[in-house]
Amino acid sequence: MEEGPARDRMLADLDEMEAMVSATLAFGRDDAGPRSRLPVDLARLLRKLVADGVERGLKATYAGPDSRVVSADALALKRAFANLLDNAWR
């Protein structure tokens, strides 16, 4: 396909579909069984996700406590907030 707006839209659509499929598969994996809940520093996790987005050229800032430890499944928590941020950036 030739360069241009139509190609750019198609590639953006493909990226979005890939993200949706990945999220669905991740949800299925998470639903497969119980996971252990461990202490997770939510503030640190959010600062890292925001920093990753800024590195990709997206606009974001973190305004919150320096530390906030919660009991959670770290991977599931990261995935949930990463999805929320990605949706906000889109």
Keywords:
mainly alpha; 3 helices
Provide a compact summary of the structure.
The protein has 90 residues and is mainly alpha-helical. 62% of the residues lie in helices and 9% in strands.
Give a verbal description of the structure.
It is a single chain. With 90 residues, the chain is mainly alpha-helical. The protein has two domains: 1-33; 36-90, no CATH class. Helix content is 62%, strand content 9%. The chain is built from three helices and two strands. The protein has helices at residues 5-30, 42-55, 74-89; strands spanning 38-41, 69-72. Strands 1-2 form a two-stranded antiparallel sheet. α2 (42-55) crosses α3 (74-89). The longest helix has 26 residues, at 5-30. It starts with a helix and ends with a helix. The mean pLDDT is 86.
Could you outline the blueprint of secondary structure elements for this entry?
Elements: H1 5-30, E1 38-41, H2 42-55, E2 69-72, H3 74-89
Antiparallel strand pairs: 1-2
Helix pairs in contact: 2-3
Let me know the number of strands.
2
Secondary-structure-derived class:
mainly alpha
On the 0-100 scale, what is the average pLDDT?
86
Which overall shape is indicated by the principal axes computed on the Cα atoms? flat
Poorly predicted regions: none
Query: In sequence order, what are the helices and strands, one letter per element?
Result: HEHEH
How many helices? Answer: 3
| Strand adjacency order, main sheet | 1-2
How does the major sheet shape up? 2 strands, antiparallel
The tally of structural domains comes to 2
Distance between the termini: 24 Å
Radius of gyration: 16 Å
Strand content: 5-15%
Helix content: 55-70%
